[in-house]
Amino acid sequence: MTITVTAATGNLGRLAIQALLDQGVPAGDIVAAVRSPEKAADLAAQGVQVREADYSKPETLSTALAGTDKLLLISGSEVGQRIPQHTNVVNAAVAAGVSLIVYTSALRADTADLPVAPDHKATEEIIRSSGLPYVFLRNGWYLENYTENLAPALEHGAILGSAGDGKVSAATRADYAAAAAAVLTGDGPTNTAYELGGDQAFTMSELAAEVAKQSGKEVAYRDLPAADYAQALVGFGLPEVYAEVLAGCDVSVSKGELFVDTGDLTRLIARPTTPLSTAVATALA
Ligand SMILES: NC(=O)c1ccc[n+]([C@@H]2O[C@H](COP(=O)([O-])OP(=O)(O)OC[C@H]3O[C@@H](n4cnc5c(N)ncnc54)[C@H](OP(=O)(O)O)[C@@H]3O)[C@@H](O)[C@H]2O)c1
Q1: Candidates 3.40.605.10, 1.10.10.10, 3.90.25.10, 3.40.50.150; correct CATH number of 140-171+197-260+273-285?
Q2: SS (H, E, C) 116-169
């Protein structure tokens, strides 16, 4: 059985391939479908089949997906182009006759106000209308969004945001990847959506307190109006369009849109999710 993972040179894609290998899938049965094959030499060295697959080049997708039984479509990172890009992948998946398409979506993609939800909602609709059996992995926020870049918080003693007292059920990419591998290798229900997040939700003040506790430095959360937060992000060098999306996402956090207590993630991976304290410790190490 061939399992194909798209965007396999990205953070989540690499972890998904590792999770498949950890679950005993032979490397030769895994296809890493990547925009940049030159970045995938390490995967090829492990025996994983590396094929070019650019979401914007349909001709690469039909070749890349040939022979695929199960497909993990990891959402693209080029905001504004994702709907046509994902459409190209779904069309290639239909042509290849895949038996399952697993798509990394966003929490409550069909109902949330989350700024990134419309692309995911549209993609889910495209997949539903393709007639292919599907599973939507509606991933919550990555814990790494909060822990990957702690240096400015430690330097200035502040974590900025517009999340108010909203709780976020973030989980590590590795936990989401393990869930993807479990779905791809399991025989669970199809035509279903999982709402995925970490077991322990936290507020931004709780995040700041954890960072302060573990680093021994003073770190506090400073809540800003969304426009001011976006401005601050632009000041840190972020393009305006991304700054506004990030600030808008924080407003969604403040409204509880990134909180989830379904337990879907912990059930799929059959263990507790990685807690905030561990992610902070890893980041500070
Ligand atoms: N839940 C969250 O908190 C969260 C946060 C950020 C993003 N996301 C979403 O989750 C996805 C995976 O996350 P990640 O951390 O793995 O992101 P990442 O490390 O930035 O990886 C993105 C991947 O998408 C690939 N890609 C971009 N455009 C492509 C195209 N036209 N054709 C084929 N591949 C393309 C990139 O290929 P190259 O290696 O060639 O650049 C890269 O491998 C992101 O793309 C985004 O949709 C979720």
Answers
A1: 3.90.25.10
A2: CHHHHHHHHHHHHHHCCCEEEEEECCECHHHHCCCHHHHHHCEEEECCCCCCEC
